[in-house]
Amino acid sequence: MVEASGAGDIIPPAAVEDVELYHPHSWWTRYVFSQDAKVIAIQYSCTAIAIGMVALVLSWLMRIQLAFPGALTFLDAERYYQFITMHGMIMVIYLLTALFLGGFGNYLIPLMVGARDMVFPYANMLSYWLYLLAVAVLVASFFASGGPTGAGWTLYPPQAILSNTPGGQDWGIVLMLVSLIIFIIGFTMGGLNYAVTVLQGRTRGMTLMRMPLTVWGIFTATVMALLAFPALFVACVMMLFDRLAGTSFFMPAIVEMGEQLQHGGGSPILFQHLFWFFGHPEVYIVALPAFGIVSDLISTHARKNIFGYRMMVWAIVIIGALSFVVWAHHMYVSGMNPYFGFFFATTTLIIAVPTALKVYNWTLTLWRGNIHLTLPMLFALAFIVTFVNGGLTGLFLGNVVVDVPLSDTMFVVAHFHMVMGVAPILVIFGAIYHWYPKITGRMLNEGMGQLHFWITFLGAYLIFFPMHYVGLVGVPRRYNEIGETSFVPASVHDLNIFITIMALVVGAAQILFLFNLAWSLRHGREAGGNPWRATTLEWQTPQTPPAHGNWGKDLPVVYRWAYDYSVPGAPEDFIPQNQPGTYPTREAGA
Amino acid sequence: MAQVVQTHSPKPHLPPDGRQGFVSDWASDQQVFKNVSWGKAMMWIFLLSDTFIFGCFLIAYMTARMSTVVPWPNPSEVFALTIAGHEVPLILIAIMTFVLISSSGTMAMAVNYGYRRERRMTAILMLLTAIFGATFVGMQAFEWTKLIHEGVRPWENPWGAAQFGSSFFMITGFHGTHVTIGVIFLLIIARKVWRGDFDTERRGFFTSRKGRYEIVEITGLYWHFVDLVWVFIFAFFYLW
């Protein structure tokens, strides 16, 4: 233990005078057009979960088709591609990105750094309404003539542009691109808020190296999103021109239905580069908030300070930076120069170093901790296991020679769903179980929660473990049915049925979760202000749920880092960040 | 809120240097960028994000230009004007660039007068900047019209690679949109300055927050950025 001394000893006067908040006068401005980050967070989360349920149902339909081809008569090959596309796009962008940054970011950043609100509440409100508009445009494509686009979530040209393919027919692709553009504009408004609030809006004593890792994760992801979404924005604008204005940015000379098209001279690979320059950071835009949140869940529920706090911060920052130079590992089979593949394989494998460091530190935080197997803790543990599993198959796919044969198989689907689907979703569940008491003042029902956890966790493995095998024997992805193929053994068909049944069960468990959310709102146990006995500022608010402005008359002052758990000599096993006094601290670098 | 709070026994210590010092400076209390307002920080981060947008546009254009199999039209012939019987290459672009860079000068002067709280002068200079900006957009419209009359379309042109027209309209159009938005903001802020909103602490229509003269500087940051982007477009599109 280190005697406290350092830059944080003397807390200087406030650098910025206390902000004036917009005070709502009516029900509309209080709950609908609200400028309160907490209300916006709940709006974001509810919209994201609602659209996520659509994507969940799509995955059910696809799994039914794979297990029992032809059972759903309306689900022809074209529909199947449309469902694949919408499932992927909704889950990655409209659910995960929106929920982590718009939902948790909005709720937790101001509370955790001790601010009254986001720095620009009005832009923050606009951010949500643009997001809602983007979702509406996306949903509208289900009802447009020809249905939504079936280009696959990567929207690769030329087939996303040609008018006689599942990708490019009718208005689906146009609505998709417009929706993405609106989403990016909306996100930028929110993202600037999150970044500036963390950089410039912290309370007295809250140095960057005292912030909870949740804030570090969300902040780094936000900065990455502000730099990565521009590439998607540009790709969308150019593709929109290719589609509507007859340009040929991404279109080579091409023959469709026996006719030479007007297009020519463009490069489809250019789109892939632009897309993946966004697409790979996007993986970490989703993963870094999950990393941050899971660190706080583990520390709180193991009653122990996070192991290697500074290392954890640096790992987040380094992963964020490295993720901008690995994008072409998604393009090994695109025909680009093999030397590129060598470079990108190297950078990809280097990312494993800071990532592994984080996993070790989570494990070491658990070591000899006072582990409480609460629901958030269960989900956090499930995340670590799942993330390691998904990460290990990532090492396979990061290598060019292994990736080339596996690239178009279900192995990729399994890997991707483990590492970017299941793992962050488990964190989202853990985070909701953890912060629901602060948001509503009541605990979620424990029994339903346990059932939900075990079905989701075990079920996810029963879905995706067999899928690795299906991929290894060579079953291609994105095929709506395999049919009679000599290299596919009969066991694959049995496994497909098994996977589908498990997918239906796991999906049903999510309905139980949603029921729990609604039921506990009224019938849950009263939580009190700090049910988990946690140190971070959001648990120290005068009211629960926190009122508009968060802190009452005076802003909190921070005296210590976020992880003073089980400090020897302290009367309790946690010391809140805003508690003055001479207790020793375990603060890193103090 | 102004008192100094002490947590532990104050021990004299020297600030760390080297990498440690860099980190502790950045990570210090409350603000990373000392005495930088929220609005200014937001504008800088936004401009960083916008840099990536223009960067992607320009890189995409350069990729198209290098990979196309059809010859690229010669910019100094395409962008020439016939003045008094002489073909003068790039003359319009030269004037446009001169106008836009001059507008950066008037903008910088407006910022200066803003901090001196000379309302009239600030508003007049901002108005002048807006006029320069509008002139630029007007000349761009003239250039577009001329090229369209000569047969340049997003999907084809008389001289070579189709991507010439598509890139030209897309990039100059996107930049022109930025200039137009800038002109609109300049006019709005100039009106507020003229009316004295920042002296009377009048609240904003949408945000209901009080504004400050700093907004002139923040608008200026955006304006200078748009100018800087033009320099790159000029270099990569017209001079290459």
Task: Explain how this protein is built.
The complex is a heterodimer of chains A (590) and B (240). With 590 residues, chain A is mainly α. In chain A, 61% of the residues lie in helices and 1% in strands. Chain A has a two-stranded antiparallel ribbon. Chain B has a single domain, classed as Cytochrome c oxidase, subunit III, four-helix bundle (Four Helix Bundle (Hemerythrin (Met), subunit A)), CATH 1.20.120.80. Chain B has eight helices and three strands. Chain B has helices at 18-26, 38-67, 75-78, 91-115, 119-149, 163-195, 197-200, 214-239, and strands spanning 5-6, 80-83, 86-89. Chain B has 240 residues and is mostly helical. Strand 1 (10-11) of chain A pairs antiparallel with strand 1 (5-6) of chain B, so a sheet runs across the interface.
SSE layout:
The complex is a heterodimer of chains A (590) and B (240).
Chain A: E1 10-11, H1 27-32, H2 37-67, H3 77-113, H4 121-143, H5 172-200, H6 213-244, E2 255-256, E3 259-260, H7 268-301, H8 309-322, H9 338-366, H10 375-398, H11 400-406, H12 410-440, H13 446-472, H14 490-523
Antiparallel strand pairs in A: 2-3
Helix pairs in contact in A: 2-3, 2-4, 2-14, 3-5, 3-6, 3-7, 3-12, 4-5, 5-6, 6-7, 6-8, 7-9, 7-10, 7-12, 8-9, 9-10, 10-12, 10-13, 12-13, 13-14
Chain B: E1 5-6, H1 18-26, H2 38-67, H3 75-78, E2 80-83, E3 86-89, H4 91-115, H5 119-149, H6 163-195, H7 197-200, H8 214-239
Antiparallel strand pairs in B: 2-3
Helix pairs in contact in B: 2-6, 2-8, 4-5, 4-8, 5-6, 6-8
Which short descriptors sum up this protein?
heterodimer; A: 590 residues; mainly alpha; two-stranded antiparallel sheet; globular; B: 240 residues; Four Helix Bundle (Hemerythrin (Met), subunit A); two-stranded antiparallel ribbon; 8 helices; 3 strands
Pick out the low-confidence regions of chain B.
none
What value does the average pLDDT of chain A take?
Answer: 92
The proportion of residues in beta strands of chain A is: under 5%
Order of helices and strands of chain A: EHHHHHHEEHHHHHHHH
Count all strands of chain B and give the number: 3
CATH class descriptor name of the domain at 37-245 in chain A: Mainly Alpha
Q: Find the CATH superfamily of the domain at 37-245 in chain A.
A: Cytochrome c oxidase-like, subunit I domain
Number of helices in the DSSP assignment of chain B: 8
Percent helix range of chain B: 55-70%
